[in-house]
Amino acid sequence: MRVIQSTAEKVAEDTSTSKAAFIRFCQKLGYNGYSEFRFALSRSMVATVTYSGEDPIQQITNAYTSFIQQIPSMISMDQVQSLAKSIINARRLKFFGINRTALSALQLRKRLSRIGYDAEVIDDQVVMGDVSEYLGEGDVCVVFSIKAMTQTYGSLIPEMASRNVKVILLTMTPNNKFVDLVNQMIVLPFISKSSTKTFYDDQAIFFVFIEILLNEIARLSQE
User: Fold this and answer.
1) Which of 19, 116, 144, 190 makes an SS bond possible with 12, Cβ 3.0 to 4.6 Å?
2) Mean pLDDT of the chain
3) How confident is the model at residue 223 (pLDDT cuts 50, 70, 90)?
């Protein structure tokens, strides 16, 4: 599970070797490189999932229900209200997301448009870099990042912070290097880290939080 969720560089670091050695290892196993090896490993783990006799429908719905029910204990309405006000009062509103978190960013953008708020979703790191250089005071950037990886946002968030952009980080990793740089951080339950037997997707948790946030934005907009 850790290999599947990591980059080649991180696997090499965790095993006290080099990226080149790890790539050679993947090739000796018959794969062209790390990406092909990781895909095969992921497919194999999914194919050999065991449910210990429990109904898969019940198991999966119970798992998501359990983690969704953790949300009230991890966030407060003060946090939700603060984020809602930031979005309502933003001069320009940007949502950053990479890969699957881009889907969450897009979901928030689409749901916001239904109540009259516009935003731009950016899922390309090059474009993120361009945008971070022209944003300024009064602008708001909401970053969706499950693990808050420095290789993805290591230069972008410090750049926006230096330009007085209000940066809000929606994550599932409380101990990250951006804690002191962002204006607000909201930490949600990390369901994909909960089990090595099956693959849960964290976007469902983001989607539920988005509905909580939209409810507050709609309420404030009516006042």
Assistant:
1) 19
2) 88
3) confident
Structure tokens at 139: 């602008």
Cβ partners under 8 Å of residue 55, min gap 6: none
Task: Look up residue 53 and give its amino acid.
Answer: G
User: Tokens standing for 222?
Assistant: 């009516």
Q: Looking at residue 39, what is its pLDDT?
A: 72
Q: Are 172 and 146 in contact (CB under 8 A)?
A: yes
CA angle 97, 4, 211 (to 5 degrees): 35
User: What domains can be seen in the chain, in order of their start residue?
Assistant: 8-48 (1.10.10.10), 66-222 (3.40.50.10490)
Q: What is the rounded distance in angstroms from the CA atom of residue 180 to the CA atom of residue 136? A: 18
Give the position of tokens 């946090």.
79
